[in-house]
Design a protein that fits this description.
The structure is a homodimer of 292-residue chains.
Chain A: E1 2-3, H1 6-26, E2 33-39, H2 43-59, E3 62-68, H3 74-86, E4 92-95, H4 105-111, H5 123-130, H6 139-150, E5 159-163, H7 170-178, E6 187-191, H8 198-203, E7 207-210, E8 228-231, E9 235-238, E10 246-249, H9 254-257, E11 263-264, H10 271-290
Parallel strand pairs in A: 1-11, 2-3, 2-4, 5-6, 5-7, 7-8, 8-11
Antiparallel strand pairs in A: 9-10
Helix pairs in contact in A: 1-10, 2-10, 6-7, 6-10
């Protein structure tokens, strides 16, 4: 078994991006600028957003963190989005999800200018992705493909099971893996809560991607010998051995599955850092497109 | 085995649409108006476009057929699309594909106002479909779902294999079947030219959707007893017994598969008429949205 080290791969990408940014700035380009909007004080969201800001600093991007109390109204948030859409200084921005219940996440997503939607959540970007047109690819699925590519994992002709049909991971990833691209050309089966005989289906897969948010869902008896395992799950579970009282758990029973598979992503340190790397790639791309 | 009679189902939809249109017009609405742009003299394209115009007449829609010689330039075609986009009289329009090689089909598709894109090919409509937002659903996939629904075919929890990953049928249909909708909630496997052991995969399916344009590709030994078969293929093959010298062949070996399956669409008279019904549904919907 080999670890798919998202942290190391992400670092390699960030190193490349830093060189690219330095070069662009020397050539007279503006500094790429990513803004992040965070509502409320959810610990997970704060951690993610801080990691994104930190990545910007490492690469030499400018970043702005815009924070709101969780009592912010939808109208206030929409006004800020319009402001960011119109601000030529900002190359891309994200609104960290989830949002409080009184705010319509889809309405917020739809309000973001697709040309600044570096998370790749806007329907226009998803639709372009489907048609293989230039677009911002959804950050987590794109990070997963990049992780496989940089670690020499062949996808063409492989049987792949994606567990979970979320709008931001499972559903778009199932398309990206199936398309005539490299990485891609997989035979993808998308399984979900209504699927019958999930175990049998997962057992047939050469590549298993777990993205349902159920800690330890994928057990060793569901995994074919030598399969590649990508674990997108990041659920906080109580862990008294940890200083902060919790640990991050993936959707895969790592300890037992690791013995059977060829490659596996750890949690944390697997897919998470790759999502951030994708976001940085999209932000640089946006700066370049906007200043052509 | 029961035939999934697309002609009869499409007729039932058209009858309902005629009543709905008559009612709208009595209430003071404008008459829905569909325009179709046809380039060249391909016999298949001409047949499809004529069928669409005829359907408009049956329902009481207005229709306009705009024809170009296959020497038309991309610029001329784009100018017409912009004109149709801006013409308030037109509720929706289609550009019949395929187009001659010197015209970029994607460029043409992208130029169509998503709010008049009743074929549902524009990335904005595809992306909205992915997110379950109101949109024009791609006509052929939507017609297939409607055909199953109106014939009482349960999809939830079923294993479905979609053969072919085209932008206009296989790819969007695989998503629509997998989503948490009714019809939907299938476990979908999308197979294509790079798939290994296609036969084994198709054999496991409760619902088989063939959309690759290879006459007779799905043979009886690939079909589980009692499966539901949807045949999207329409390839012209030489047939000297026919007056015009050819016959339309589906992707399924109908004669032998029919004996094993529970439901099957004929070719012609299965999916084809349903595509037209979807187009009519989208056009009425567009008129209503535009005149709200």
């Amino acid at each position: 078994m080999q670890l798919l080290d998202g942290k190391a791969t992400s670092q390699a990408i960030k190193d490349e991006l830093k060189l690219a940014v330095d070069k662009r700035i020397k050539e007279g380009s503006k500094t790429p600028h990513l803004a992040a909007v965070l509502v409320g004080n959810d610990g997970g969201s704060l951690t993610y957003v801080n990691a994104k800001v930190k990545a910007c600093e490492q690469i030499g991007f400018q970043s702005s963190l815009i924070r709101y109390d969780d009592t912010v109204t939808e109208a206030e948030l929409l006004a800020k989005i319009i402001e960011l859409n119109n601000d030529d200084e900002i190359d891309g921005f994200i609104v960290q999800l989830p949002l409080p219940n009184h705010i319509d996440e889809l309405k917020i997503t739809m309000a973001i200018d697709p040309d600044k939607d570096v998370d790749g959540f806007h329907p226009q970007n998803l639709g372009k992705m489907m048609l293989n047109l230039p677009s911002f690819l959804p950050a987590t699925p794109a990070g997963i493909l990049e992780l496989m590519k940089r670690n020499g994992i062949e996808t063409s002709g492989k049987d792949c099971v994606v567990i979970g049909r979320s709008n931001i991971v499972g559903m778009p990833l199932s398309i990206m893996l199936a398309k005539k691209n490299d990485p891609g050309n997989c035979t993808v089966t998308l399984v979900h809560s209504r699927t019958k005989n999930i175990k049998k289906k997962v057992l047939q897969a050469d590549i298993i991607i777990a993205a349902i948010g159920q800690p330890g869902f994928v057990t060793a008896d569901m995994v074919k010998e030598g399969a590649v395992i990508i674990d997108v799950g990041t659920t906080r579970v109580v862990d008294s051995s940890k200083k902060n009282g919790w640990a991050l758990k993936g959707d895969v029973d790592f300890a037992n599955v690791a013995e059977k598979c060829s490659y596996i992503t750890p949690v944390p340190g697997g897919v998470g850092p790759m999502t951030i790397a994708s976001l940085m790639i999209n932000t640089l791309q946006s700066m370049e497109l906007r200043n052509k």
